[in-house]
Amino acid sequence: MSNRSEISKDAADVIFTGCGVTNAAPAQAQPGGRRRQVVVNGRRVKTIDVHAHCLIPQALALGGAEAKAAIPNVRGAPEQVSVVVDRLGVMDEQGIDMEALSINPFWYRMERDLASQIVNIQNEKLAELCAAHPDRFVAFASLALQFPDLAVKQLEDGIKKFGLRGAAIGGSVAGAEFSNPKFHPVWAKAEELGVLLFIHPQSTPELANRFKGNGWLANTIGNPLDTTIALSHLIFEGTLDRFPGLKICSAHGGGFLPSYAARSDYCLGVAPAMDTGVKLRKKPTEYLRQMYFDTLIFTSEALRHLASEVGASQLVIGTDHPIPWQSQSVNHILNTPGFSDDERRAMLGETAAKLLNIH
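RE: above sequence
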């Protein structure tokens, strides 16, 4: 999948890319090979990035045209393969000690046997990479959620057999919302295992025609909108009441929902005819404080607002590595005014360490 003739074994098994982009530039090792040490008020912090992508070429080959369509080239640039040593170099430069790797789902519309093969390959290869670099990588399991019974087994195997730390899921499954009762066994298993579900959106394909034109709107708007819809269904359909111990982390700061959360508290009072009879145990905005969100938002004011809505204790680093949305994620947290030292340490890594069982 690359024109590069010299690729390490690690690179042959894993491509570091994601978010619908396959032309991320190869990472460059930091001069001198020195890792940036992140310190808050004299105390070293282990920084953990929960939003970092990779792909497994063997699984992509099985996915065929559907897999290729899910990861289009951008601006016509050739795909680049980043070997692990280069990936580590960029992590060192940015001050990221560990990454939790995830693969964006492209297999949700595939038949059972093929989806099962793809997921098994991915989980096995992710486990191998993490075992080879246990101080730098952990990973989220892939799940064939379109077959909930299979996904339950994959989740349990991912945690108990492969040593993965949770599961990466999309924003919906072939048009079905996560609040659909057919997914309840998956959420029950995740709650039982006490593991994190990392929601990464897949744009909002129903709006594909409106996303045409300049601005890469399918991603720029479509991705955070997809997350907003997914979280809203989980709240309003009572899924989070049914599974109160479910641990969910959303990419891109939770999409648009935290930015306009209070509207959710008033909606059914304004339009009571839209109330389906689901009686929530608390106000919609209160559910935000039991979920987790990455810090992949772009200004200090946005980060402070997100923290005010959900609590700084619910925030974790998200870089989207290797996609260059945000290369200053550590500084973003260090330089935003208004946080205590304890809050900064929590956001930089302590909260993620607890969620991902990193010691």
